[in-house]
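Quick one: co-fold with adenosine-5'-diphosphate.
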Amino acid sequence: MQEKILIANRGEIALRIIRACKELGITSAVVYTPADKDSLPVKMADEAYPLKENKSYLNIEEIINTALKNQVTAIHPGYGFLAENSKFAKSCLDAGIKFIGPSAKAIELMGDKAVAREIMKKAGVPVIPGSDGEIDDFREALKVADEIGYPVIVKAAGGGGGRGMRIVHTPKELEEAIQSAAREAASTFGNSKLYLEKYLQDCRHVEFQILADQYGNAVYLGERDCSLQRRNQKVIEEGPCHVLTERMRKKMGELAVRSAMAVHYAGAGTVEFLLDDRGNFYFIEMNTRIQVEHPVTEMITGIDIVKEQIKIGLGERLSITQKDVKIYGHAIECRVNAEDPISFIPTPGEIKKLMLPQGPFVRVDTAVYEGYTIPPYYDSMIAKLIVWGRNREEAIIRMKRALEEFVIGGVTTNLPFLRKVMDNAFYRRGEVYTNFIKRRMEPLT
Ligand code: ADP
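Sure, here it is.
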């Protein structure tokens, strides 16, 4: 049967998936909201179906009905929106449509980060000292915090995007932190469940890309270092992580695969760890979708992750084994955001001038074009700039050159900030911990 994949997403990731479909000879379709009617995915997909409202990318019923009306055989959720909504995955299957992602059960288990911690503990994967599952009240939190020692971090079990977290340095601050984290979690994720972890200072965020098919075969495609974050959200990612030895890579990669297998995972996924300077590492969460930063891994492995993900989702076996995975050189990705450089408030509006960087080993994933108006309703990320070099030093020089070529007129972006990072001596030496921006870049000017 000829497959027809509906992309329940927008922007650069919708384009990325359309491209994968074209190379696989699969019909691609997108849904789009009124605000996105002039977007590139609508122009580039084989088919495009309108949705009613600007928030319709979150409307399960409307998307499934649209898919059924148009003989769609599979749905790709991209990232964000419904990508990690287990109800959506289940609704697709109930409607007889394949969901390009793991089972609803795997999404549900990993989507509750307090539950995921417990599953990992049982599977023998190290987790950060903290609460056993969720914390029910302040007294319990106080007891756990006393045991593990301050500082601690209060985190939302259903959290994502760095939201719903509070670092706590003394017992006195704990109650207020719990209340405000619960409030933020309830309003952002509709789930006020919290858990507690020891807060690790000077650590790196190191995550492993994995691919697993529906028949129990799985591989890891090396790691990405995503330590360069602003308010616990990634800004620059790179791979490989330059402080990992081959032995550590193998150990962490195998544990990442074990993490995924613990929930019978199938699809593309990412297992995230925090790594300290003494080589201790701890599971923090698993993302059950394609990630923004997947191109970093594509550049260093030569593997098209989205194509593999689609094939797996359609029921094919993994086409590679661990032996086939080789890491070449170094790749860096910068997230280009339309935002104010100091307040980070999004700056939607018309892109009056656009010149994309080019040249050898430079990749730009974007859905914007000159004359395009960035709508105010969605994410502020408007492009991803990815470069490859034979080693980290060459990749940094190339990124600096590519960022200098990049011109976006009409809206304010973080391009000047990204350029500054490439010139930062600590960044160049690879002394990048998750507190890098606060410690090495502030005050922002
Ligand atoms: P989210 O799902 O919101 O992305 P994560 O659990 O993946 O949340 O954490 C995001 C980031 O927050 C991490 O990369 C790290 O910088 C910081 N963080 C989370 N937990 C801890 C911790 N226990 N200690 C120190 N930093 C942490």
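If it helps, Residues 171-189 form the longest helix (19 residues).
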